């Protein structure tokens, strides 16, 4: 396919292919796009990937050099470590919003309209837009900003390869464990009692919220725009309802498998009362980790 792998910056085979090409050719930088070039990712000269949270961190570092203190809008599944990196190291403000590149871009535009300066809207999928480019969802433009940074470093004689980019994300705390599971709702199950999957999913989220309130080791995010986001055991999870499908995506990030299991068990404790929800993927995570 395409011709050797899926054209997707989030696809492991695609990222492996560009990484191997960079190392084999001793290139300074590798760049990958999807087919319509609105999503992108990169690989540095050592083979380190810049995608998902790491790409966002790199773009934040570049944009915040140009616009100190600006607000960065991201989707809901970005990490707690990214928030710390943006706010504590870079001096910006992290505004975590909803999934969907259109949601993220529209929120950045809205913030500017009410007087809160924002110059970057970016999603973990690789979609990204900047104010200076009229908020176009443009993966190529993001990569040009990386190349400009490389060219400037080369002109000043500082750093070899893509060293300048690698150094810009130093200090980003990254999890040892990061998983995304899709918990499906069986729309034909009697437990729905004739209701919609959306109502059923919202009931699950409300029940989870109530459960978390009684757990002293877990804390709900004080500001959250999508689903139920909870921190604890050195990590976090987000359970949300898909916009169109009868699915509850679950993201878990933790510093160890043991901590990921503890977070997974917190979700299971609430989900077990909802018989139409298929928790087999989460059961497997908890049992095998």
Automatic annotation (TrEMBL):
Gene3D superfamilies: Alpha-D-Glucose-1,6-Bisphosphate, subunit A, domain 3, Alpha-D-phosphohexomutase, C-terminal domain. The keyword Repressor does not apply. Residues 2-47, 52-152 form the Alpha-D-phosphohexomutase alpha/beta/alpha domain. It holds the Pfam family PGM_PMM_II. It comes from the Eukaryota. One of its GO terms (cellular component) is chloroplast stroma. GO terms for biological process: carbohydrate metabolic process. One of its GO terms (molecular function) is phosphoglucomutase activity. InterPro entries: A-D-PHexomutase_a/b/a-I/II/III, A-D-PHexomutase_a/b/a-II, A-D-PHexomutase_a/b/a-III, A-D-PHexomutase_C_sf, Phosphoglucosamine_mutase. Its EC number is 5.4.2.2. Transmembrane segments: none annotated. Keywords: Isomerase, Magnesium, Metal-binding, Phosphoprotein. Its cofactor is Mg(2+). The keyword Transmembrane helix does not apply. It is an enzyme of class 5 (isomerase). It catalyses: alpha-D-glucose 1-phosphate = alpha-D-glucose 6-phosphate. This is phosphoglucomutase (alpha-D-glucose-1,6-bisphosphate-dependent). The lineage of its organism: Eukaryota, Viridiplantae, Streptophyta, Embryophyta, Tracheophyta.
